[in-house]
Amino acid sequence: MHPSAIYAATVDSHTFATFRALVEAIIPDSPVSATYSPELTAGAADLCIHEYMIWELDHSLSLVLGFGLTDIPLSCSTAGLLNVGAVHLAASRQLQHPPNPLLWESGPFSAMSRNDRISVLAMLEQGNIDPGVLPPPYRNDLGFTRYMIDFLNRQTMFGNYSEWSAYGTTRLRTPTERRLEYFPVSWKQAEYPGVVPGYRALLGYMLTIERKGGESTIV
Amino acid sequence: MYDADAMFDADVIVIGSGGGGAVAAKELGEAGLKVLVLEAGPWYGNKQWANPNSERGGEWSSDYKDLDVGIYKKIFNAYENNMNDLVSGVFRFGPADRRRTPWHRVMRQKGEIWQLSGVGGTTQLYWSQSPRAFPLAVDNIWPISYRELVPYYEKAEATLPVQFAPTTPKEELFYYGAKKAGWPLIPTLNVTTPGYRPNPNAILPTNEHLMDQSYSLEQLSNMEGCTLKGNCVNGCTTGSSVDKIAKRSTLVSYVPLALKTGNVAIRPNSFVIKLLTAQDPKEGLRATGVQFRDTWTGEIGELTARTVVMAAGCIESPRLWLNSGLPYNEWVGRGLTNHCFDWVAGVFDEKDLMSIMGLPAVYPYVGHTSGARVDIPGTGIFQVSCLSPGLMSFLTYGFSEAGYDALNPPEPGAPWDIHGRVVGPQLKELMMNYSRTMSILILTDDETLYRNRVQIDPLLKDENGPIPIMHYTPSPKTLKRRDQLARYASETLKQAGARKIIRSDTPFGSMIHLESTMRMGYVTDTNCEAYQVRRLFIADNSVHFNGIGGPNPTLTTQALATRTAEKIVTKYFS
Ligand SMILES: Cc1cc2nc3c(=O)[nH]c(=O)nc-3n(C[C@H](O)[C@H](O)[C@H](O)COP(=O)(O)OP(=O)(O)OC[C@H]3O[C@@H](n4cnc5c(N)ncnc54)[C@H](O)[C@@H]3O)c2cc1C
Ligand code: SF4
């Protein structure tokens, strides 16, 4: 197995499915142009952005606990947060669509429609839930919960629209060992030409500073 | 215990080599003092550290000849995820070893603190806008006058150097909209009336051969002068040597100049965890040195000096004060301002752009990351600012105090069509229009409040000690100004022809311009020397009295650091 497969194999399947459902709701595989092409349709789940998010959350925090510095992975507890939120939203009868009953037991968040998943995020962001029922480290900390919901949204977008997916088989390696394997699909969707050495796009200067003897004038 | 005539390791120790620290080091070195700089993060572009993110490498560098543009360009590859991932990027606030996690700050609100460790500090990714403060925000408010700052502004501007930004399509469109919206051109560096102007940027003038097809772009990128590569935020790589890189982070401007003095040695990967002090019979409590931790080995070292300059940034400078058990001062860590930034974008139609500019797109990825602005003393600034798609998507659509647009659409009559986060098919459609989208950064004249602060967590620690907790909520006055600026920016976009306007309503906890957590007049005197600890000076954004009215803060820090170096020499070394 290459290192990314090893890393992915260590993540439990609930966490994996929950993050897949998250990124799919934020960036779905809807077409972006009239002419259908699988590349232009690809959404965040197709680009494995759920794996990116899991990697990021598991590599973002360490604190001194007891005697030494300890890494604190956050993906599993964050998936738990989303699933607790899903159950709460369903219990308060605020769902727009019935969840998939086959998936409900194993992962309520991924059993929901995409719009309802966004409603779960909004509910947690607004703190419309008893903070005592949230899993640690979110328990009784609606501030950190708000921070995290915001992070989940923006980091999914950053992961998706940056070059990360094009690291291909090396995408979950230590960052210094990732290698670009192709041109990022999302950059095609955005019509971004990628990294180039420069653009011959000079249209002139509106003003210029001239310096003489420690003083400057503007021309 | 303390011997005034003891041998010191140096005349001055500087803590942090970012926007302010590098300037202090160069100026003090030039004055002939022996300077040691301790920097928590890595050094990119130095032969002593060929693989700075995976191997410990050397300890010190004090030789200009150590600089190596090949190593620099290999690391600064301009890919946005590699460069700017907050968790594990080349640019982050964390140890050099990218296998390790970043250093944590406690945030109980939405947003992100965008600061970097490493030689050059946060200027490695800054966009290099280098405006002066608004005189209105300094005169009769700061303990020193604007006039007092001007000669130091002149010196820092000439050293970086600062020049007005060139026009590329996005600036042309911005000027077109700003003029139609009624703003006059203000051809000045001392802004006292509202109007538009190109940004004064710390970027070398555009390569004179850029438009000459006989030079390949590859060739041009290894010569002196900006190539309008549009990647300032992801680390500029255009230039023939480290000290000729187009965008003038202190890593490529002041640091090479500091090394050239022959009096400055810099030690990266060294996190200062304690300020050392002693009672002097004449001076009272004074700084005598620092204790630091090697971020690779965990070993603790100590160095002593006649004076210490703290330039660890707006969070770490107060943290260091508090973790060192220095005398209580109710303003340490207090009065945080951050320009309460916001972000407004406009999506254009191809045919409108054709008729206005004769071009089919805005080309947000071309030219300086930000090249033009409207300044409004008393209110703030809005400046055209365009980024690579990953960064642009999250700043425009991913990030909001207002929540999701679809669940909470704009109030009727608002000048924007979208207010808050966008997700789902609508997001993909908007991102398909990325190349026809112009975005604008809003910087607010932010009221300084005691409640906005950096504190130390009573329980949580990392390897460098108790960690910072951040708290920031803007005042009603700040929010009113910010809203006004978002309206002005929307108007300029509309006048320029935008068909759809998006207001992010950026989370208040998103911080790029942190200032004023160790304020002059409260924590330091007008020389930037701490009232309660002699020979301890402050030379980063934290010593600002306020948010300088909204202009991007670094040039003011650099002017002040230049002045502080002069004061140190006069007071303790002449
Ligand atoms: C995206 C972005 C764009 C920006 N664009 C602009 C712009 O265009 N114009 C502008 O004026 N400003 C801009 N800024 C802000 C600018 O980067 C800061 O104003 C500037 O870097 C502040 O300088 P400083 O010295 O206070 O802190 P920093 O530059 O952050 O330097 C602090 C240094 O101290 C080191 N350090 C911290 N703690 C310790 C310790 N305990 N021991 C040793 N070393 C330590 C850090 O590693 C760091 O290198 C931008 C910021 C961001 C995030
Ligand atoms: S536009 Fe920015 S990144 Fe590009 S060459 Fe100029 S300074 Fe460097």
TrEMBL record, chain A:
<protein>
    <submittedName>
        <fullName>Uncharacterized protein</fullName>
    </submittedName>
</protein>
TrEMBL record, chain B:
<keyword id="KW-0274">FAD</keyword>
<feature type="domain" description="FAD-dependent oxidoreductase 2 FAD-binding">
    <location>
        <begin position="11"/>
        <end position="46"/>
    </location>
</feature>
<dbReference type="GO" id="GO:0050660">
    <property type="term" value="F:flavin adenine dinucleotide binding"/>
</dbReference>
<keyword id="KW-0560">Oxidoreductase</keyword>
<feature type="domain" description="Glucose-methanol-choline oxidoreductase C-terminal">
    <location>
        <begin position="451"/>
        <end position="561"/>
    </location>
</feature>
<dbReference type="InterPro" id="IPR036188">
    <property type="entry name" value="FAD/NAD-bd_sf"/>
</dbReference>
<dbReference type="InterPro" id="IPR000172">
    <property type="entry name" value="GMC_OxRdtase_N"/>
</dbReference>
<feature type="domain" description="Glucose-methanol-choline oxidoreductase N-terminal">
    <location>
        <begin position="221"/>
        <end position="340"/>
    </location>
</feature>
<dbReference type="GO" id="GO:0016614">
    <property type="term" value="F:oxidoreductase activity, acting on CH-OH group of donors"/>
</dbReference>
<comment type="similarity">
    <text>Belongs to the GMC oxidoreductase family.</text>
</comment>
<dbReference type="Pfam" id="PF05199">
    <property type="entry name" value="GMC_oxred_C"/>
</dbReference>
<dbReference type="Pfam" id="PF00732">
    <property type="entry name" value="GMC_oxred_N"/>
</dbReference>
<dbReference type="InterPro" id="IPR003953">
    <property type="entry name" value="FAD-dep_OxRdtase_2_FAD-bd"/>
</dbReference>
<protein>
    <submittedName>
        <fullName>Choline dehydrogenase</fullName>
    </submittedName>
</protein>
<dbReference type="InterPro" id="IPR007867">
    <property type="entry name" value="GMC_OxRtase_C"/>
</dbReference>
<dbReference type="Pfam" id="PF00890">
    <property type="entry name" value="FAD_binding_2"/>
</dbReference>
<keyword id="KW-0285">Flavoprotein</keyword>
